[in-house]
Amino acid sequence: MDSFFSDRISDVPRSFIREILKVAIDPTIISFAGGLPNRQFFPAEELQRATQQVFERYGRDLFQYSNSEGFLPLRQWIAERYRKTQGLEISPESILITSGSQQGLDLLGKVLLNEGEGVLMEAPGYLGAIQAFSIYRPEFMNVAVDEQGMVLEELDHQLARGNPKLAYSVPNFQNPAGISYSDANREAVAQRLRGKRCVLVEDNPYGDLRFSGTPARSFYELLPGQTVLLGSFSKCVIPGFRLGWLVAPEALMQKLLVAKQATDLHTSHFTQCIVHQYLMDNDIDAHIATIVDAYGDQCRAMMEAMDRHFPSSVRYTRPDGGMFLWVTLPGKLSAMALFEEAVKQQVVFVPGDPFYTDQQSHSTLRLSFSCVDAATIEVGIERLGLAIKKMLGE
Ligand code: PMP
Question: Which family is this protein grouped under (predicted)?
Answer without folding.
Answer: Belongs to the class-I pyridoxal-phosphate-dependent aminotransferase family.
